[in-house]
C-alpha cells in the first residue's frame, strides 16, 4: 500500500537526519508492543482503534497490516473499529469506510 511505503521512506529519512530521535521512538514503540498480559494481536487491535480516533491514516494502515500478521480476523478488526467509531463519531466512520476497508482489502 502506498501509505505504508511513504511512511517507511519518511522514517528512513528521519533516521538519517535525526538518528537519536528515531532510536528513542523505535525503543518506545517496541516496548509498547512487547507481548505481556495482552497478546500482540490485541495491542494491534487497540492501535487500530486509537489510529481511527486520532485520524492517523498511516497508523491505520500499519496497524491493520500488523493485526492481520498477528492473526486478527477481518471481523475482529471491524469490531475494534466499531469501538473507535463510538468514540470518534462521523470522522472515525469516514476513515473506517475508506482507509480501514482499503487496508483490509490490500493486506488480507
UniProtKB/TrEMBL annotation:
Show where the Carboxymuconolactone decarboxylase-like domain sits.
19-95
Cited SUPFAM superfamilies = AhpD-like (SSF69118)
Q: GO MF terms on file?
A: peroxiredoxin activity
Query: Which sequence ranges are marked TM in the entry?
Result: none
Oxidoreductase among the record's keywords? yes
Q: Which UniProt keywords apply?
A: Oxidoreductase, Peroxidase
Return the Pfam families for the record: CMD
Question: Which region is the signal sequence?
Answer: none
Top-level taxon in the UniProt lineage: Bacteria
What's the protein here called?
Answer: Alkylhydroperoxidase AhpD family core domain-containing protein
Amino acid at each position: 500500500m502506498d501509505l505504508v511505503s511513504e511512511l517507511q521512506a519518511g522514517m528512513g529519512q528521519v533516521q538519517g537526519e535525526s538518528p537519536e530521535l528515531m532510536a528513542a521512538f523505535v525503543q518506545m514503540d517496541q516496548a509498547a508492543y512487547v507481548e505481556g498480559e495482552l497478546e500482540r494481536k490485541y495491542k494491534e487491535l487497540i492501535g487500530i482503534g486509537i489510529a481511527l480516533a486520532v485520524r492517523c491514516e498511516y497508523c491505520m494502515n500499519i496497524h491493520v497490516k500488523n493485526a492481520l500478521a498477528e492473526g486478527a480476523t477481518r471481523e475482529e478488526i471491524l469490531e475494534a473499529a466499531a469501538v473507535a467509531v463510538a468514540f470518534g463519531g462521523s470522522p472515525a466512520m469516514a476513515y473506517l469506510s475508506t482507509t480501514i476497508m482499503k487496508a483490509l482489502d490490500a493486506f488480507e
